[in-house]
Amino acid sequence: MSTSAHELLHVVLKAERARILSSLIRTCGGDFDLAEEALHDAVVAAMMQWPRAGIPNTPGAWLLQTARHKAIDSMRRDQRARAKSSELGHTADLPGGKEEWTPIPYDMLRLIFTCCHPALNQEAQLALTLRTVAGLPTIEIARAFLVSEQTMAQRLVRAKRKIREAGIPYRVPARSEMPERLDAVLLVLYLLFNEGYSASSGEQVVRQELCAHAIHIARVLSELMPEEAEARGLLSLMLLQDSRRHARSDARGDLVLLRDQDRTLWNRAQIEEGLRLCNETGQLSPGGAYRIQAAIAAEHARAVEAKDTNWNQIARLYDELLQTRPTPVVALNHAVAVSMAYGAEEGLRLLGPLADDLDGYGPFHAARADFFRTLGRGPEAEDAYQRAIELATNDPERRFLEGRLREVRGTAIPRAR
Amino acid sequence: MNYLLLIYEDEKALHARDEKTRNQVFQEYGAFTASVRDGGQFVAGDALQPTSTATSVRVREGKTITTDGPFAETKEQLGGFYLVSAEDLDEAISLAARIPSARFGTIEVRPIWHYE
Fold first, then answer.
1. How confident is the model over A285-332, as pLDDT tens digits?
2. How many domains does chain A have?
3. Among A99, A120, A227, A331, who pairs with A65 as Cys (CB 3.0-4.6 Å)?
4. Taking all residues of chain A, what is their mean pLDDT, rounded to a whole number?
5. CATH of the domain at B74
6. Is B61 part of the contact surface with chain A (CB cutoff 8 Å)?
């Protein structure tokens, strides 16, 4: 096969695999495996035919058309499809030459919602979304979640089997189901994003790709469901967080706090898109949790220097978030924002009631330590830093806290312990 | 597809329920059953006697071993079932959510094995 045809096939697959697959799965009556096999067969056919017969005008349409015929042939042969063949009436007599190749938004939505169906466990939802919607190879998904390729492959097989055997439908949820179902999709996307954003472990490249995929799917979702403000809120939030990626760690890989980041390293294009989305959805009330978090991220993005940050507004937004998501961790973030806006004394007061819930949570002690340090209460700060260091989950964080502890003590302590 | 909707509830809480609530739930069950019959989804369904009436049977090495009580001690116990015919899992889930006990206990939705 000539290089150009080969390269083109690669590019087309990268760009349109999910779209083709989403349509094929519908043809196959919701059978993911059959659709994947048919697409594979079509790709093989393309490798054979394109160099000889020339590259088709619309390669994506050609692949879909060919894969559809392969799928239908195989369903006719296959016993297990007998029950489904009654549904094939409309696809069996496809037009010979020109397949319609308009965007098929509904199929993409079907695919996204089916992958994130609440009858699948969360691990399965994440894996299936990455495999079919993002088109990531199984081995890369395995790497991202720190499991073996075999484990990940089994997870995917089990998920697809459940879809088939439990009768999870390939469709967009009804209006009445939409709030719950959309929440599930948005959560999967945000988990994917955070998996890629958290610096705790894994390979850097794979992780960045996870963020990119989560953003891409959120963008597709926002375009297909413009009426769902929370989808755009999540997209805005992820863009604004991702914009800080290059400023978040130093050359050594250590975490750089927001207030110490070099803001010229922030990605302006992502910030502009994030702010635009945030402004659009900000008009709609009441704000959902993702929109409020996007608004908080937007306040940071707007500040040219750390000292320009509008902490009063951020404290107000966290207060709003606390009404929607009354969790101890949100309450902790609220306390930190309040301390920035109204002083460490106020922050410390708000931390009091959280002590029971968050005693085993490092960031809680780090915040307390910081408040004590600001208030010049050295010994209490020392105790709290020590507790935070014990609970730190990664090395950069630990190094940072140890630096602070040294500062408070005013003496150097040996690095190795 | 056919789905078995298994109704699990805490028997102790069930017995502790006052007369008024019990009657109300009973009537709700009547209304639910009538509506799935009318909708053509009802295949079968019934309530079970409490687990105190259960007997477990095993055959090991040709010997029948009969013991008192249910197969497993759990917080919620199987108390009844519906066998329904539904288009897909989403329809089965929406039926399960309408079973009165869904508010107090758990409904397990299981597709029936399909022989080809």
1. 677 999 999 999 999 999 999 999 999 999 999 999 999 999 999 999
2. 3
3. A99
4. 87
5. 3.30.70.1060
6. no
